């Protein structure tokens, strides 16, 4: 598929080709919230059915951008429908964002709002859209950073004050009538699509949509169409078809969708990384630091007192009752949190004591401190952190291993607002919680997520119970030397093992086994022992 505009490909289909039903919806979760929505419900959705695999190498630096598709065409030509069909055709897909140009209408004056309600404002002219903001948000998403896109009210004809947080997509589909108009936008696309549709069909679709979804009258829709929409299509929209790599019909477009999906899958396969094999290679190939692990400046180990060794002995014992395990886990997590807070910035504070004397002490010298737990093994560390810092804001990341490759997958994130807003992220200090650092695959991904949001590496304090000496800790320290790691103990071994698959009965296997790595002597599956 050539990227040259001159080689744009038009795909047509036989008139008798059946159109697949759209009753099967793909459920997506909006990053940063717990609300669920279906694919057909709204634009600007985050769709998750597979998770985001690593987009960075063992040095912690991003090595590939998200794959960006631009879809243009006339109003009601079927751009959003084509975007949804592409998502459905991809099958088992990583995280996808469908980004609508409609969110980027400029703020309007009271006079312009009055004209809009009278169907006398030209929303179909390029000047009505905040193209620099659209390009900026898309560029952030393409470079694997978070962004906050505006929310536009079509009933009130005004951009709202609140924004929508988006992050983590491997595929971004930007659609709108002017999606191919601006050169800055076109430069961001890996694939450019133009949806071509009959004018009568577009008008019929627009009347039905605007009356049903936007509360307009038929007369108002027709007046606006003749006054603004049709001239804009002829003068601004249709000419951008020359920039498209592929031209898709607005209906009966199965062949085109399959062609596009095949190309996207090929591109994603070429961008795939194999991170874990670099982190858990043969011991003699693991890059050891010239500084002993215990003396590395980024690693802080709790003093190995008899009390600490006694607690670890209880936690390592497989016969320890669950109630005792929870009690001593909370106790150890409190010790770790107390040690971790030593790396926060402090400033002098003068107070008056109950006896009337003045005392100069210390207070935390930052407004933004939060915790982020890697689910669910990081959960047992949360209680200790809350005991040390009252009312601390908490977030979470769900990172799991892909069954066949063992690669980490980012499946969900729920981050505090101080991280989601880039203006405050750089001033935020984050306690990142995980039970242990074995291969360090989850730690790599979690730290990379925070860095993508603008958190400084020097402001990340990784709190964990155990670190495997022969695991990925050395690669982690090399990739992120500014990140502090606080642990209770260093275990010497990281053993590779094969977990058995589940059995359906009658000798049939439901799922195949997968490779795993176990810290030894370790504490077992800490999250399972704590919660189950």
List the helices and strands and how they pair.
Layout: E1 9-10, E2 27-29, E3 36-38, E4 45-47, E5 67-73, H1 79-90, E6 96-100, H2 110-117, H3 131-142, E7 147-153, E8 158-166, E9 171-175, H4 183-186, E10 191-196, H5 199-213, H6 218-237, E11 246-249, H7 254-271, H8 276-279, E12 299-301, H9 306-316, H10 322-340, E13 346-352, E14 358-364, E15 369-375, H11 382-388, E16 393-401, E17 408-414, H12 417-420, H13 422-425, E18 429-433, E19 436-437, H14 441-452, E20 460-463, E21 466-468, H15 473-479, E22 484-487, E23 489-491, E24 493-499, E25 503-505, E26 508-509, E27 514-520, H16 526-531
Parallel strand pairs: 1-11, 5-9, 5-10, 6-9, 10-11, 12-22, 15-16, 15-18, 18-20, 19-21, 20-22, 21-23
Antiparallel strand pairs: 2-3, 4-6, 7-8, 13-14, 16-17, 24-27, 25-26
Biased composition (Polar residues): 1-10
GO molecular function, one term: uridine kinase activity
Keywords: ATP-binding, Kinase, Nucleotide-binding, Transferase
Describe the protein's architecture and organization.
The protein is α/β, with parallel strands linked by helices and 532 residues long. It has a seven-stranded mixed sheet with strand order 1-11-10-5-9-6-4, sandwiched between helices. It has a seven-stranded mixed sheet with strand order 12-22-20-18-15-16-17, with helices on both faces. Strands 19-21-23 form a three-stranded parallel sheet. The protein is elongated and about 85 Å long. The longest helix has 20 residues. The chain is 31% helix and 25% strand. The chain has two domains: 253 residues, 3-Layer(aba) Sandwich (Rossmann fold); 234 residues, Rossmann fold, CATH 3.40.50.2020. The chain is built from 16 helices and 27 strands. It starts with 8 loop residues before the first strand and ends with a helix.
């Amino acid at each position: 598929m050539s990227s040259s505009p001159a080689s744009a490909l038009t795909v047509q289909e036989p008139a008798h080709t059946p159109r697949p039903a759209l009753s099967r919806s793909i459920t997506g979760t909006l990053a940063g919230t717990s609300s669920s929505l279906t694919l057909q419900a709204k634009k600007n959705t985050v769709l998750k059915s597979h998770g985001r695999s690593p987009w960075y190498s063992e040095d912690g630096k991003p090595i590939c951008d998200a794959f960006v598709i631009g879809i243009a065409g006339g109003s009601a030509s079927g751009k959003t429908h084509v975007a949804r069909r592409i998502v459905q055709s991809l099958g088992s897909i990583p995280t996808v964002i469908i980004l609508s140009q409609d969110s980027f209408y400029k703020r309007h004056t009271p006079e312009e709002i009055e004209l809009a309600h009278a169907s006398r404002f030209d929303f179909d002219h390029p000047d009505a859209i905040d193209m620099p903001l659209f390009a900026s948000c898309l560029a952030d998403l393409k470079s694997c950073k978070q962004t906050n896109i505006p929310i536009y009210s079509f009933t009130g004809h005004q951009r709202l004050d609140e924004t929508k947080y988006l992050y983590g997509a491997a595929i971004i589909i930007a659609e709108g009538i002017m999606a191919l108009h601006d050169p800055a936008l076109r430069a961001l696309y890996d694939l450019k699509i133009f949806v071509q549709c009959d004018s009568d069909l577009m008008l019929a679709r627009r009347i039905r949509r605007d009356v049903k979804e936007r509360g307009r009258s038929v007369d108002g829709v027709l007046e606006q169409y003749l006054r603004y929409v049709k001239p804009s299509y002829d003068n601004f929209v249709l000419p951008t078809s020359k920039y498209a790599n592929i031209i898709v019909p607005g209906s009966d477009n199965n062949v085109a969708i399959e062609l596009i999906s095949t190309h996207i899958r090929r591109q994603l396969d070429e961008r795939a990384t194999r991170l874990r094999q670099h982190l858990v290679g043969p011991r003699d190939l693991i890059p050891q630091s010239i500084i002993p692990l215990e003396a590395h400046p980024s690693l802080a180990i709790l003093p190995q007192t008899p009390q600490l060794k006694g607690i670890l002995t209880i936690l390592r014992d497989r016969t320890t009752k669950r109630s005792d395990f929870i009690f001593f886990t909370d106790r150890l997590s409190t010790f770790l949190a107390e040690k971790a807070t030593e790396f926060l910035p402090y400033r002098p504070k003068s107070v008056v004591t109950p006896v009337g004397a003045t005392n100069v002490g210390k207070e935390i010298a930052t407004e933004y401190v939060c915790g982020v737990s890697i689910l669910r093994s990081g959960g047992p560390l949360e209680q200790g952190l809350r005991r040390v810092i009252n009312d601390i804001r908490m977030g979470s990341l769900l990172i799991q291993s892909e069954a066949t490759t063992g690669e980490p997958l980012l499946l969900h994130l729920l981050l505090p607002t101080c991280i989601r807003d880039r203006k405050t992220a750089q001033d935020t200090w984050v306690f990142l919680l995980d039970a242990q650092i074995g291969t360090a695959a989850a730690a790599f991904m979690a730290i990379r997520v925070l860095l993508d949001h603008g958190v400084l590496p020097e402001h990340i304090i990784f709190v964990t119970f155990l670190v495997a000496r022969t695991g990925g800790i050395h690669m982690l320290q090399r990739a992120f030397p500014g990140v502090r790691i606080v642990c209770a103990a260093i275990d010497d071994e990281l053993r590779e093992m094969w977990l058995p698959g589940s059995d359906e009965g009658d000798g049939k296997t439901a799922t195949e086994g997968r490779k795993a790595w176990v810290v030894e002597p370790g504490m077992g599956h800490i999250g399972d022992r704590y919660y189950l």
